[in-house]
Amino acid sequence: MFSRTSELPSDLRNTGSSERTRTRSEQEENFEFTIVSLTGQTWHFEATSYEERDAWVQVIESQILASLQSCESSKNKSRLTSQTEAMALQSIRSIRGNSQCADCEAQNPDWASLNLGALICIECSGIHRNLGTHLSRVRSLDLDEWPLELIRVMSAIGNELANSVWEANAQGRLKPGPDASREERERWIRAKYEQRLFVASLPCTDLSLGQQLLRATAEEDLRTVVLLVAHGSRQQVNETCGEGDGRNALHLASHKGNVVITQLLIWYGVDLMARDAHGNSAMAYARQANSQECVDTLAQYGCPDERFPLMATPNLSRRNTNRNNSCSSSGSTALI
Ligand SMILES: [Zn+2]
């Protein structure tokens, strides 16, 4: 429960002998006391006076009590957390499309691809692992821990939305069934996520993919964000609102306090160190938005946390006539 060497002062000395046979009066005469651990270990100490011995016994007993109470409260906490987590995971299973594996339609899939926001069966999960984490981050619904931001992502996407992006056009190819061979599954999964053969088309627009991503993020249009990151390169994910502004999509997602898009952007390679034209990292925007979830997620990935006061960002629609700058299209990106 506690260590005698760290808890006791040097003027108390361990008697170092078995005191079991000593009477209480003898121990009192010697100002001794004994600590017995739950495992039966004993430690014997001797103080220099009754007062000192009684003071030590009182301090140690209160420490034992505090320690026991702390253990009990942390047990309750984790139990509550796991109950909440179990309920959240159950609700993820009930999202549209999630009763079947996103890739082979096996019933009741128990594995998740985090960045895809989809549930998959154990056979398909093995193939997803082989794709690499840049394409699919696999996690077990039952065996792994589920921090809040991951639950948020899985709750927000789901198999139906994910497949509306990743499997929009199967080009006449037949999806493997639950009994498909590993080779059949692998061919399908690699065509779907690695070669991106079935991905839905990009919207018809003159805007670059990066500018579309900025707009979709500012508008918190999750499906479009999923579609754009499915098509996009790291460079496109890191486009900014232009010179004089400097915000990337992560700044915009953090400003919205949108932990789902924040997390997705991080997985798809957005630069966490990027600063806007005023030197602000995404963390400053998350703090301004009072989004503890975004703050925690950004901190987890090392986003810098200097607290510069956020400056008003110029209204780009007045200043910038460049059609490729989409930030002005959304008033929601303006600060203060
Ligand atoms: Zn499957």
Automatic annotation (TrEMBL):
Coiled coil: none annotated. Residues 1-65 form the PH domain. Keywords: ANK repeat, GTPase activation, Metal-binding, Repeat, Zinc, Zinc-finger. Residues 1-27, 314-336 are annotated as: Disordered. InterPro entries: Ankyrin_rpt, Ankyrin_rpt-contain_sf, Arf-GAP_GTPase_ANK_PH, ARFGAP/RecO, ArfGAP_dom, ArfGAP_dom_sf, PH-like_dom_sf, PH_domain. Residues 86-206 form the Arf-GAP domain. The keyword Zinc-finger applies. Residues 315-336 have a biased composition (Low complexity). ANK repeats lie at residues 245-277. Pfam families: Ank_2 (PF12796), ArfGap (PF01412). It comes from the Eukaryota. Residues 1-14 have a biased composition (Polar residues). GO terms for molecular function: GTPase activator activity; GTPase activity; zinc ion binding. Belongs to the centaurin gamma-like family. This is ArfGAP with GTPase domain, ankyrin repeat and PH domain 1. It comes from Echeneis naucrates.
